[in-house]
Amino acid sequence: MKTAKKNFTEQLRQNTAQEGVEHQLTEKECSKCKKVKDRCEFYNSKRTRSGLQSQCKECKRSKLANEKASIPDGLFKCSRCDQIKEVNLDNLHKDRIGKSNKMLMCKVCRTKRSYETSDKLAQKERHKKWRAINKDKIARYKKNYVSNNRDKIASKDKEYRSKSEVKLKRREYEREYYKNNREKMIAISCAYDSRVRKARPAWQEQKYINEYYKNAKSLGFEVDHIVPIKSKLVCGLHCIDNFQMLTRKENASKGNRFWPDMP
Hints:
Shape: elongated
Order of helices and strands: HEEEEHEEEHHHHHHHEEH
Radius of gyration: 35 Å
Number of helices: 10
């Protein structure tokens, strides 16, 4: 029984292969125009048994031309996802911009195809090797991107940090970090308190300093030392005359690198 089934399967394969050869040697009818044409008038296809597409080249070109004509200027149709998109760097790679063809593959689909058709491990190795060779090029690109897109980066960072799950994750990280580095954090806090005590002159009363800090907090500002109390070149005083109210961003960007009449 098994032998008969095996012989039948083998015979079926031979017949199918023979049919395929015979089909390749004969003409083919186009599924659209219904004309019988030579096999050279059809594009190849790996998905069909005959190795040819169902529509002839002429019908395919006509269909493609009609699709291109229906797409307005400044737009293109992705040949993979069939979506109409705007011609810009967000949707196309740089080498595709300026092409007259309106049937292009968008950036997302090209990236997906790259990962689908290539060995991921080999691709990672190539990327790693390229990054090692082009460190200076990558550094210049990052520097230029940051300098030209500061507002975009800041808005994305602000949007990301405003998410509740990110805030919760950040608080958990800070709590865990303080727990694992308690002595270090206490030492940093004590060092700052020591600098503040040494920088506060005897004639400056603490209650006025506390009041100044309270007013700044109520207005949504941070208290900054005009002349920093910790620097390699200068040491300012911890008093009201050396205070100024700044926003959090201004205070962070100033640091201890700038002060009036600095050398």
